[in-house]
Known about the structure:
Layout: H1 3-11, H2 16-36, H3 40-49, H4 58-67, H5 83-95, H6 100-107, H7 118-129, H8 138-145, H9 149-166, H10 173-187
Helix pairs in contact: 1-3, 2-3, 2-7, 3-6, 3-7, 4-5, 5-6, 6-7, 7-9, 8-9, 9-10
2'-deoxyguanosine-5'-diphosphate (DGI) binds next to helix 9.
Amino acid sequence: MEREEALKLVKEQLTDHRYQHTLGVMETAIALAKQYGGNEQKAELAAIFHDYAKFRPKDEMKEIITGQGFPQDLLEFNSELWHAPAGAYLVEKEAGISDREVLEAIRYHTSGRPGMTLLDKIIYLADYIEPGRHFPGVEEVRNMAKENLDKALIKAIQNTIMFLLKKNQTIYPDTFYTYNDLIKKLED
Ligand code: DGI
Ligand code: FE
Ligand code: FE
């Protein structure tokens, strides 16, 4: 699918603020793919659609998770996690995206997963460091991303876990599994 067509489809689903975020993720993901030898077309597509389901009603996302064989434990954790798997499903069904790697990068863009692919990493990190993000620590991760993709990704996950801890929020176990997996591989 061409960029313009994809952007048109996603614009209809998002607020203007979230659409601007999506454009930032797209530019950042393409740059990271260039830098780290990833597939630029797939990075562009996954970035454009990563937050496709962000504004779907909770009931609809819940139904998708129940009905489409996604891990049911997602429903016991923050509903903010749901738009990632629900998005992967809806992007295939409604936008006709069939590339498994792209759909998986969308599915895992919030929690990550053990054994993240290069594309998963690019999307997770681009989502975190796109130019519209202004939270504490983001500049450090941006700088790290210029040097080492995995180290930058670990920092982003650490920051996310700390942020959730400070807010007394639950943390989805896959977020820890992702973190542990990346740390172990770094030590190898
Ligand atoms: O959709 P975005 O805002 O662009 O970013 P995102 O999809 O990475 O994250 C959405 C929200 O999900 C964010 O506010 C933090 C939250 N989140 C990320 N990991 C976890 C989490 N919430 C819980 N409860 N547990 C997690 O592991
Ligand atoms: Fe998201
Ligand atoms: Fe996002």
